[in-house]
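>> received
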Amino acid sequence: MRHLLLAFVALVPLATTAQRFDDRHPPNTYRNADNPHYWKNRPPYEGYWQQDVHYLIKARMDDERDVVDGDLTLYYHNNSPDTLRYVFFHLYQEAYVNGSHLEQQMIAEGADMRRYRNMAYAGTRIHSLTSGGDTLATEQDNTILKVWLNEALLPGERTVFRINFSTHWAMGLPRRMKLFNAWGSKHYDGVHWYPRIAVYDRKFGWDTQQHLGMEFYGDFGTFDVDLDFPHHYVVDATGVLQNPQEVMPAELRARLDIANFKNKPWNERPSVITPPEPGKRKVWKFHSENTHDFAFTADPTYRIGEAEWNGVQCIALAQEPHASKWQNAADYCAKVIEAHSTSFGMYVYPKMIVADARDGMEYPMLTLDSGNDPNYRGLFVHEIGHNWFFGMVGNNETYRAMLDEGFTQFLTAWGLERIDGDTMVVDTPRTRYERRYTLPELARESEVYYSYQRDAVRDKLPASTRTAMSSTTGPTRAPVVMATCTPRRPPCSTICSTSWVTRYFSRRCGTTSIGGKCAIHMWRTSASA
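>> returned
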């Protein structure tokens, strides 16, 4: 009994000092037994497993060269029952270099690639890749990097990779990682910008699909990322900012508030809040847990709006020339979080960003958007909605396409109806003609039914294909079934009289009828044959 008592006393300090789960601050607590979202604490069935990752990245943006130079340390846990002798990394940006698989696909589809021929290199280069101090052998096939381990990684063991890399931006490329001129400044979207280890799962083994500009699949874990930028940039990203007083003191935050620019004319040149100074920089530190990717956006012209719902910080980043029509962006973001949380399951992350970034794409806690109110409402509902299946479930988007765009398109209509009612909120018609002939548009028709019809008219409904790189046989082709829903259809006469169909079929076919019959009826008949 005395020995048991001594053992208990010895363990008490360890128990009282153990780090409790905290997804907002370091250190990493993702694998904690009190993390309610860690897969091992809630396995869906006996024997389930997935790999765990912890990325530590220190990245420095050179905005004269348009390059991020990064040092990445990756802690990789092999929770599988298999011994791993090699791993794979995705270098997504290599899809946009000359000779890539994506370029070859675009040429095969008839795209004119001449304007991209002389563009600057815009991919990711690996300068060194080591483990345990030893350089590892690698082999690259465009966006896939195979890495041989010097020592086999046994089940239940962890290894550490250290990677020095550079990722390059270029203007004018058709991709998500945008660089564009923001009224004389540079705007950067940092997405797919770091070497990302491929998923190893029970169903497929290694995910070695070439990146063809489409969807993604990643391991969950923790990201600790330091982003070193020239001091005049406004930066935000996946995760919780750890040093707000250093990079965004109260006085600066007040000057950047979006309300200061509510009367600024649309597209008028922005003011200069923080003048650039050569050599003066800031390091923005972010911590994120229970996530499978990390993205950022940076722009000197960003102005900031904030709202909150149920402890979730909702942030709007609007370029100052657009700020007058982004005044309700943060509040609308909060309404979207509430609508989706109360309908489909609680949002588990501490923040959500809607960013004015000439795009429409989702990342954990960050959406890249465009437009103005009320035209951006559907985009916000959709891109934020992706954080349910894409973000929190993290399914293989290519293999289960319906859970990505299919479910989110349904969720978009649902969310719009919950927030604004069944009729789309639109700009007031400008002319008497428009006021007379523009009919109200239902959210479910606009976001579900018309989307389905647009794909049908453009022959986008049949099965597509994907390119995969086998770890043993190289590139292969395999079918992907694109799932869609079939919503309740209003009468043909109603559809044919709507302004969208009039515009669409007049543009595509020169008429809204074919041989005296409603074009939509013709499509329905042929589609059901």
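>> Confidence is low (pLDDT under 50) at residues 1-17, 462-529.
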